[in-house]
Specification:
The chain is mostly helical. The chain is 65% helix and 6% strand. Helix 1 packs across helix 2 and helix 4 crosses helix 5. Keywords: DNA-binding, Transcription, Transcription regulation.
């Protein structure tokens, strides 16, 4: 299967023209970096869904399973929502599907019988183990064009970009 063609990326000149057209005093390179980052992020999100569908999962379902595996024990749905950065309703939807497949189980909290605790089942742990080799190989392939130093710099840049996300979401 041949790779999908990449959509054309906006250029620095296009950003300059657009900024001039609006009569703004903005840095075209900053705008271009942000626009390109959002476009690549959208493509990466789509590719991620294709990737995880190979294993009968979605990105969200994988992240939830991996979070439970990393935690080593049970977590409440609200703890899962916080660690995944999603709403409690989103976690409930993910859990419903994962529980139907026998990959997670919900039980009563030992500390508070009213609260629920979610745990990874043996079947869920096996799903993660079965997909690990291919999954990690493909992740390495995603960044194969970057040197060790470039990956280190990229991680630092991602942290700084992550800190700037509030510029898009704050009132």
């Amino acid at each position: 299967m041949s790779p999908e063609p990449r959509p054309s990326a906006p250029s620095l000149e296009q950003a300059r023209r657009q900024i001039r057209g609006y009569g703004l005093d903005a840095d075209p390179q900053s705008v271009l970096v942000a626009v390109r980052l959002m476009a690549v992020g959208a493509r990466l999100g789509q590719a991620s869904e294709v990737h995880f569908s190979r294993f009968g999962l979605s990105t969200g379902r994988y992240r939830l399973l991996a979070d439970l595996e990393d935690h080593g024990g049970g977590k409440s749905p609200s703890q899962l929502a916080a660690s995944l950065g999603v709403t409690r309703a989103t976690v409930t939807g993910l859990l419903d599907g994962l529980e139907r497949e026998g990959l997670v189980v919900r039980g009563a909290s030992a500390e508070d019988g009213r609260g629920a605790v979610v745990s990874l089942t043996d079947r869920g742990a096996q799903r993660l183990k079965d997909m690990a080799a291919e999954h990690f190989d493909r992740l390495q392939g995603l960044v194969a064009g970057l040197s060790v130093d470039e990956r280190e710099q990229f991680l630092s840049m991602l942290d700084r970009i992550d800190e700037g996300i509030s510029a898009l979401t704050s009132d």
